[in-house]
Automatic annotation (TrEMBL):
The chain crosses the membrane at residues 12-30, 97-118, 124-143, 179-210, 222-245, 312-331, 338-363, 383-402, 414-437, 1009-1026. This is Membrane protein 6-pyruvoyl-tetrahydropterin synthase-related domain-containing protein. The keyword Membrane applies. It comes from Candidatus Gottesmanbacteria bacterium RBG_16_38_7b. The keyword Transmembrane applies. Keywords: Membrane, Transmembrane, Transmembrane helix.
Length: 1037
């Protein structure tokens, strides 16, 4: 009895379970929630989070609403599982439970996979499988993937071994049972596809495997395999493909990605050398964060200390050496199943080793493939799991072969036992609570859950603006040991305007530009107008949010002053440090308005919507067919944070003036130009040495080279434009110098300023030299794995004015220069960009970049121009910094300049009551209490997207969602005059006289792709029947 019990205990599966249980016990911290970095928390509100996954194409809760760019629907299966176990697993530990469960499932998957690959007659079969599976559990790639746990990472770890195992088994041993196992595990693996690139890794691995089976005999079952995978995944895959087709550029051009993508690629490449790849060390070992004392520390600080031990370091090289023996053993024994994984090992190693001799050239070939270069920008997170699966298989085989060679014919092979234990020793800190980064074990205060409960009975479409919003990065630090992308929207059904969503939406990004400008310029009127423009119903001020770089940049006191001074914002309730306010004057998410004026040009990025401030609601010019006023702001988006500078116009210069140039649309011939009232100070140059000595420098306006206006102070001008031929409009702004002016040549800064090492304290190289070339002095900065900074201090510049910053630079190698304009009052960067890397016709020439800094607080002073020469890894960065000048410009005058084409005055608008039913994010049903009798504008306050459709439907028609989305022609008459309103919303021109007896149906039609994908599941029983029939026929024959 005792011997039988002992034999049970030493079963490999029991050993794996016990080790994972010990990991769970030692890494669970009572009283905390596993939350931080990127996290999913459907357990905070299963009802509406499940609904979001069922209708996942339009992500209404993400700020202003957006087309989902991730596999949001893919999380549905995981959420259902969590919901089913939630009665027995407390909310506080359900995320701990899930990730520990994924560790267990993945390790068992590798065990059974390797058990299948090792010949059945091998006496040590199960122990060889155990050695490989424990390597899969205890290696540095696993540690890094779980250190800041994210559900798709963990699901990928758990199910990829099973997917590969059951695929090979099905192809080798085709049967109904094996096919059903494969279907089942493919369903369970769907949550990995929340990050779509993990699904691509799976398909890539599948392609490499199936290509080795490809012949006439196997073609049918391979086709069935791919069809099955597609059918199971189509419900999230088709919407994802739609996003790639329609909006992938939004993601790649988002400011967060523009500022970080190249850095992340270089950090991956830094760890792409041979030693780091063999040791499975990725860029996580280089990642730093600010700790509670304000100092930088490595995320894997404890692991770095552990690996200083030479014995531990040398142990790391044992695993790839044994894997090489495993490859030899597979060839020697002609183990066809194991050899199927060798191409996977070679492929993954080649991409990970993108900075190693020979492999660097293979990686360059792969990265020349456009889609490949986008998908695998960060190769370690995407390919490390596939790599360690292949490595673990060959490690297990190598353990068997070497232990047999050295200690043959032993019933208890001590060398094999050593190989089983070795990975456990190598990752010993796991048993001391070091699996998870300490900042992802957060004690979320109860006040947040009280806030969630408060909003339970509030309208689900009420939009919440959360503050502080001091940075574009979408990464928030809290007092309670949390740093990450955020979590409150998992407990709130209402949309939250957080920066975490900006990477998927230009409209969200523009909201941040506008609201942050209103706050940091302390402009109450502008702040209220932005709240109104974006239909914000609630303001949430979170006192737990902190900034480690500088607490002043949060602007908490000034934000509180703005809120308390507002006549449209009233306090509602406090939840400890959380303060909730109600905005009283914003409209509904669907509303009727008069026929609106048309404003041009359209713009992508800006911080001040002058059109909305002057006219209220308006139609963007594209797609509109109305006969109302048309207004054109030639220099509408003067502020720009894009690397190329400006959008709708050009800037040139001569010795004495800057010239802002644009083309006037032909429709504004002989129409009015309105020149805004300007203040005398806007054009005043004050002598730096004698403040009483001043000079006026007045802008001039030219059309097709002819002067048409000279500006007058304190007076608005309005007159008809002369007839023009080309419509070349120029505003010539004299260069104002004097007291509020900076020039690095005049101040001798170029010859006296000294760069300094910043952020990264131990660079391999930071150096500079002063050079004079063609009588022009400049500074050359060079860095290798370091950051070199320069600060040009401009303490006397008043924030009352806007400024044009002119920078001469030349990129020699590596990254281009980072430039930040630090507001000396808020200690925040009002502008952050990387200067563009241009191809110069003459290599010796300098690039000239023009950047605009808008006016901020009236009585504040001082800016710091922060320039950084950044190198990551062994790639040397060399940049030349030439002349830098900063001139004040009449910002409000330039942005307020407009052309007006008067149209037909709309009728007085009658008040119409709407009844709106909003059953899910992709559908609205609108009924009228009394039908409007004239043309009106129906406005839907969701981000503009051409996928939104409007139908006029008979009152008595009740179409199901399936028919409404799959067969939209059955919905009724489509109203096609769809346009953008207020540079972000959807609008349609409707004629009330044609809508008698009808209701309006608003659909986000791309939701059909998810519905269609789910409908395909009914084909799976057909495939099962096909398998049953085909195998029955084989048995009969």
């Amino acid at each position: 009895m005792i011997i039988r019990f002992f034999n049970f205990l030493i079963k490999p599966q029991i050993i794996i379970f016990t080790l994972v249980l010990v990991i769970a016990v030692t890494n669970y911290q009572p009283g905390t929630v596993l939350s931080g970095w990127d996290n999913l928390h459907p357990e905070f509100g299963f009802d509406f989070n499940l609904k979001r996954s069922l209708f996942a194409v339009w992500q209404e809760y993400q700020g202003l609403g957006l087309l989902g760019g991730m596999g949001h629907a893919a999380d549905l299966i995981r959420q259902i599982f969590l919901y089913l176990i939630s009665p027995i697993i407390p909310v506080q530990i359900i995320r701990y439970f899930f990730h520990f469960l994924m560790l267990l499932i993945g390790t068992l998957g590798l065990y059974y996979f390797l058990f299948f690959l090792i010949p059945k007659n091998h006496v040590m079969r199960k122990w060889g499988a155990l050695s490989g599976s424990l390597f899969y559990l205890f290696n540095l790639a696993t540690v890094q993937m779980f250190n800041v746990p994210f559900e798709p990472y963990s699901a990928h770890y758990a199910f990829l071994p099973w997917l590969l195992f059951l695929t090979i088994r099905y192809l080798r041993l085709p049967s109904l049972k094996n096919y059903m196992y494969l279907v089942f595990i493919n369903f369970l693996a769907v949550p990995q596809s929340y990050i779509g690139t993990f699904f691509l890794v799976y398909i890539l691995a599948l392609s490499i495997l199936t290509s080795q089976f490809l012949n006439k005999k196997n073609f049918g079952r391979i086709a069935v395999l791919y069809l099955t995978v597609f059918i199971i995944n189509a419900f999230w895959l088709l919407p994802n493909v739609y996003f790639i087709y329609k909006k992938v550029n939004v993601n790649t051009q988002a400011k967060i990605n523009r500022m970080s993508t190249q850095d992340m690629f270089l950090r991956n490449k830094k760890f792409g050398d041979l030693a780091n790849v063999l040791l499975l060390k990725g860029f996580w070992f280089d990642n730093t964060e600010i700790n509670s004392t304000g100092n930088l520390e490595y995320q894997l600080q404890d692991w770095l200390g552990y690996f200083k031990d030479p014995g531990v370091q040398m142990t790391g090289f044992v695993f790839p050496i044994l894997a090489i023996f495993g490859c030899y053993y597979a060839f020697k024994e002609k183990n066809r199943n194991s050899l199927l994984l060798l191409p996977l090992l070679i492929f993954s190693f080649s991409i990970l080793a993108n900075n190693a001799p020979f492999f660097i050239y293979l990686a360059e070939i792969f990265y020349k493939i456009p889609l490949f270069s986008q998908v695998f920008r960060f190769p370690f997170t995407k390919l490390s799991i596939l790599h360690i699966i292949s490595l673990a298989v060959f490690y297990g085989l190598g353990s068997l072969w070497l232990s047999e060679k050295i200690l043959p014919y032993r019933k208890i092979n001590l060398l094999l036992i050593l190989f089983i234990i070795l990975p456990v020793f190598y990752c010993l800190p796991v048993f001391f609570g070091k699996l998870f980064y300490y900042k992802v074990r957060a004690e979320i205060p109860r006040e947040y859950f009280e806030l969630f409960e408060y909003f339970r009975d509030k309208p689900s479409s009420d939009r919440i603006a959360n503050f502080p919003q001091y940075t574009f990065w979408g990464w928030t630090f809290y007092r309670f040991n949390y740093s990450g992308s955020g979590f409150i929207w998992y407990g709130l059904e209402q949309p939250v305007l957080d920066r975490a969503f900006d990477v998927w939406s230009r409209e969200n990004e523009n909201y941040f530009n506008e609201i942050s400008y209103a706050i940091y310029s302390r402009n109450l009127s502008l702040f209220e107008q932005v709240l109104k423009k974006y239909q914000i119903k609630w303001v949430l001020f979170d006192g737990n949010v902190i900034s480690f770089s500088n607490s002043r940049e949060l602007y908490k006191d000034r934000l509180e002053t703005l809120i308390s001074s507002s006549s449209i914002i009233r306090p509602v309730k406090s939840f400890g440090p959380l303060s909730l306010y109600k905005v009283e004057t914003t409209g509904e998410n669907i509303r009727l308005s008069n026929v609106l004026p048309v404003v041009s040009p359209n713009y992508i990025s800006g911080n001040l919507d002058m059109a909305y401030l002057e006219t209220g609601d308006y139609i963007n010019s594209t797609g509109s067919r109305t006969e109302t006023d048309r207004i054109h702001f030639p220099f509408r988006a003067l502020y720009s944070d894009t690397p190329g500078g400006l959008h709708e116009f050009d800037i040139s210069e001569d010795e004495d003036e800057y010239v802002f140039k644009t083309i006037i649309p032909a429709e504004f011939r002989n129409q009015r130009i309105v020149i805004p009232e300007s203040q005398p100070a806007d054009f005043l140059e004050i002598d730096r040495n004698d403040l009483a000595k001043t000079a006026k420098k007045i802008p001039l306006i030219f059309l097709d080279g002819k002067l048409i206006a000279e500006i007058k102070e304190n007076q608005e001008l309005s007159f008809l434009l002369p007839n023009f031929f080309n419509g070349n409009l120029e505003v010539r702004i004299p260069k104002i110098k004097g007291y509020y002016y900076f020039d690095s040549y005049d101040s001798d800064a170029i010859s006296t300023i000294n760069p300094f090492t910043c952020e990264k304290p131990d660079p391999e190289l930071n150096s500079y030299e002063r050079i004079i070339e063609f009588e022009k002095p400049f500074l050359r900065t060079s860095s290798i794995d370091g950051i070199y900074c320069l600060n040009y201090e401009m303490n006397n510049l008043t924030h009352q004015f806007g400024y044009l910053v002119r920078v001469e630079s030349r990129n020699i190698s590596g990254k281009s220069l980072y430039l930040g304009v630090i507001n000396d009052n808020s200690k925040r960067s009002d502008l952050e960009i990387y200067l563009p890397r241009k191809k110069r016709a003459i290599p010796e020439d300098f690039d000239v970049s023009y950047l605009i800094v808008p006016p901020m607080e009236n009585y504040a002073l001082g800016y710091i121009l922060n320039i950084r020469n950044i190198s990551i890894g062994r790639s040397e960065t060399v940049n030349d910094i030439g002349r830098i000048s900063v001139n004040p410009i009449p910002y409000k005058f330039i942005t307020g300049l407009k052309l007006v084409k008067d149209g037909i005055n709309p009728f007085a608008f009658e008040n119409i009551n709407l009844s709106v039913n909003h059953p899910h994010p992709a559908k609205y049903i609108v009924k009228f209490s009394n039908m409007p009798r004239q043309q009106s504008t129906l406005i839907l306050s969701q981000s503009y997207d051409e996928g939104w459709k409007l139908y006029a439907v008979d009152q008595n028609i009740q179409n199901s969602d399936f028919l409404s989305f799959i067969l939209p022609s059955k919905n009724g008459i489509e109203i096609k005059n769809h346009f953008k309103v207020n540079n972000w919303e959807n609008g349609w021109l409707i004629d009330g006289s044609q809508l008698s007896g009808k209701k309006l149906l608003v659909l986000y039609l791309p939701q059909r792709w998810q519905i269609f994908g789910m409908t395909l599941w009914i084909l799976l029983p057909v495939l099962l029947f096909f398998h049953r029939g085909s195998h029955r026929n084989k048995d009969t024959s």
